[in-house]
Structures are given as structure tokens and as C-alpha cells.
């Protein structure tokens, strides 16, 4: 098992950060996120906390380093290049915290990646703790910290994953593979551990980049929120989405417009 | 707004998302946690989505993943 940890401070109020979190796709740094759906959402009647479960579909290439370690056929042609991520969040606006957990739903036997984030309102000294403090972004200078912990766990080579019944093991999305390590000799179990470590390390290296990108994306959304409110975020999104959906959309328009000015210069 | 995995649900999803954003920023974050004015849109969106999830065979995978997720979730709540 490997861990990645990161602490970061947003120069935005806690309510703004949570709103940006729900609104963060699409943004210019999220081209790999194809779709986002809300699977479940409710306010706990006792605690008044908002629970949300979302399903994201992301483009993902299995890193070539991992691909080399996989048996032929796995991670190759049958891999669609897309992966499902389940994200679960709880917000408590009164206590000023939000917790999220995201995990991959497939390939958990090869590498299970669980990202946990804790967002925490940082009270400013002397600031009044009142309902006004919950307004979106009226308190300049308010900060929100986020602690990110990502856990990588490879069960590669354990149990039936490498066994004969490939289809069966792929259908088992629980990642609950039985460990038949005792049957193996010392050297083969050593190399299995080595492969697992390698896979986990590749995961850590990719995550460094992904965590940075997700912060940049959040900051874009937060800046749009500050300067244009929700309308500003939606407008920015529309443009981001156009850039993704219409492959040649914005470029084509620039090109056409460019030609038009050539033809009929006003 | 982010696209739905089911293109046929995009319209209702956009309506629901818009409703949620308004409710979340104007009511929920300001302490009015009991209102649920987006409930009707959400159930329409969900029934559209669930059909597609079933067709794609994602529903079972979701259920399994949510089971392991909820364990972690309850662990979170205990700690706080």
C-alpha cells in the first residue's frame, strides 16, 4: 500500500469552495472528465448534512508501465479507455467542513485508488460567527483548507486475478480476491510484491499531476464564481463544454470569423 | 453544466442541476436545510438515468461500490 498526502489552502470562503466542488466539471483542466451524474442526494434530517453520491466517467489510459505487467489481453483491446469513478460527499455548513471520497469502480484488483479530501473552514480572527458568514463569498480573506489523502493498493497477482478464469475475475468488481499466496514459492511471491509496488508507484506518480490539475480547475471555477457569480461559472462552462464537444467548434468559428473579416471588412 | 452519461437525460439533468445550485447557494448554505424544492426534478432525472444505467449494466457495479463506500462514510461521521 502507498499513500499520497497534500495540504492546500484556497483563498475563498468555505461556502464558495463547496459550491465550486459541485460545479467543478467541466473546467479547462478537466478535459478527461466525460460525464457527471448525481446518483443520490439527500439532507440527513437529524444532522442537516447534505449527502451526495455522484458517478463520473473519465477518460483514462492504463499507463504503459502497468500495461507491460499485465497478461496479454488484459488492459489491451478490451479496455475501453474510460473508467467510472464513484464520488461521495458530506457537507456540514454549520460546522464548516466537507468530506469527500472518490474511488475507481473497475480494475480494483490491479489497482484500487481511494482519494479522501477534508475541506475545513478557517475562521478569521475577529470575524462574527453568524449566518451572514455563510453568504457565498462576501468575506474577502476567508480561507478554506483541504487535506487530500490518496491510498493506492494493488492486489495484483493475488488470488484468482491471474488465474485461468479471466472473465470471472473481471466480473468481480468487489475486488475481493482470495489470497492464495501460501501456495506460491518464496521467489514468486516476492516478485508479486515487487509488481504490486511498481503498480502502486506508477499510481502515485500519476496522482501528483492529477491533484495539481484538480486544484487548478477548482481555482478557475472559484475565480469565475467570484467575478461573475453562478451565471459566470455557467457561462465559462458553456465555453469549456463547447471546446470539448465540438471538436473543431471554437477553432472553426475563429477561422470562419477570420475569413469573414477578410471578405467584408467593416 | 457537466453532461450526463445518458444523452437523453441531459435536458432534465440540466433543469435539476440548475434547481440544485439555486437551492444550495440561496437556501441550504444560508441555513434553510429542510426545503426540498428540487425533489420532483430529481426523481424525474433519476428515473431517466436509472434506465440507462441498467441498460449499460452499471447499476450492479454501482450498488457494490456504494456498499463499500457507505462503510467509509459511517466511519467518517463517527469521527466527527
Account of the protein in words:
The complex is a heterodimer of chains A (266) and B (80). Chain A has 266 residues and is an alpha+beta fold. Chain A has five helices and seven strands. Chain A has a single domain (2-263), classed as START domain (Alpha-D-Glucose-1,6-Bisphosphate, Chain A, domain 4), CATH 3.30.530.20. Chain A has a seven-stranded antiparallel beta sheet. Mean pLDDT of chain A is 77; it is low at 129-134, 160-182 and 247-266. Chain B has helices at residues 10-26, 39-56, 58-79. In chain B, α1 crosses α2. At the A-B interface, α1, β2, β3, β4 and β5 of A face α1, α2 and α3 of B. Chain A: It holds the Pfam family PRELI.
Quickly describe the structure.
With 266 residues, chain A is of the alpha+beta class. Chain A is 36% helix and 27% strand.
CATH fold-level name of chain A: Alpha-D-Glucose-1,6-Bisphosphate, Chain A, domain 4
Count of discrete domains of chain B: 1
Which stretches of chain B of 5+ consecutive residues score pLDDT under 50? Answer: none
Structural class of chain B: mainly alpha
The ordered string of helix (H) and strand (E) elements of chain B is HHH
Q: Would you identify the CATH H-level superfamily of chain A? A: START domain
CATH class of chain A: Alpha Beta
What's the average pLDDT of chain A?
Answer: 77
Topology, number of strands of chain B: 0
The biggest beta sheet of chain A reads: 7 strands, antiparallel
Number of continuous helical runs of chain A: 5
Chain pair with largest interface: A-B, 48 and 39 residues
Helix share bin of chain A: 25-40%
- In whole angstroms, how far apart are the ends of chain B? 32 Å
CATH architecture of chain A: 2-Layer Sandwich
**Strand content of the residues of chain A, in percent?**
25-35%
Instruction: Please state the CA-atom Rg of chain B, rounded to the nearest Å.
Output: 15 Å
Organism (chain B): Aspergillus avenaceus
Family (chain B): Belongs to the TRIAP1/MDM35 family.
Protein name (chain B): Mitochondrial distribution/morphology family 35/apoptosis
GO biological process, one term (chain B): phospholipid translocation
